[in-house]
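Fold it.
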Amino acid sequence: MIIRMFLLCFLAGAAIPLSAQDTAGFDHFRRQEQLLSPLSRQFVSGKTDAQRRSAAQEVYRSLGDLLSMPHSWNYPFDTLKQAAVSVLKSADGMCRLFSWNLILKDGRHLYFGYVQYRIKKEWKLEALLDTARNTIPDISYAETDASRWPGALYYAIEPFRFKKRTYYLLLGYDGADRRTNRKLIDVLNLNQGEGVLFGLPVFRRQEGDYEPRLRWVIEAADQAIISLRYEPYRHIIVLSELTKAFEDSPDEPSYKVPSGDYHYFSRDNKGYWVFHPLLTDFNFGKGR
């Protein structure tokens, strides 16, 4: 409850224009980053949940302060990357995404993040609050804003065009709980009027699907390693096929494991991402 109250208070002022004059330079960023890096390792190594939460709160607050400073966009945060924070920058130079997770003793994961982005000539910062899992029964069909973020540790961002606008394809990991883990294909929308939004109805289960999903979720047993990756050579998203661990296993995510085969998404002539079963004759990494 304490951490939720903290995040809500911070979020109220989270859309911050990055327009003031820079007086600190990169030396200040380096000093602060050196302080935050050992704290970030406590997200997992802290002996108690209280220690892990405290470390996550401090990194969240301090990183927010740093990202709201002028010229922070040009600072790479390489030391944080090497610790426990994912830092992704889009190829078109329009946004940067920070995400990390706190692992509680009961196996649950809580997620934190920021989106730093440009609207016209103004840089903005928006804090991400991981609450959607508690309020939305099925996030596959839900558009969410920063205050109802589904929560994920993102590892890939790819700009794409849809209906004459630019969106950002996101691939992320969600440790979920002790029974399952999942990976997500999501879309980031830098909406000029409403801040950042997550989810876009572009994921079709087949050609002619008139009720596309807003994001795609793959959920399997906790120890299962799910493959989900974007292959730029063929412009497709490759994902593991899941099957029951044993023939008589219950048909639920906590008993699902990768079969060794793969499915994929490719874009149709209208720009939708369409699901295709069983990818064959494909060389991972080379796209052929």
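The longest strand covers residues 180-191.
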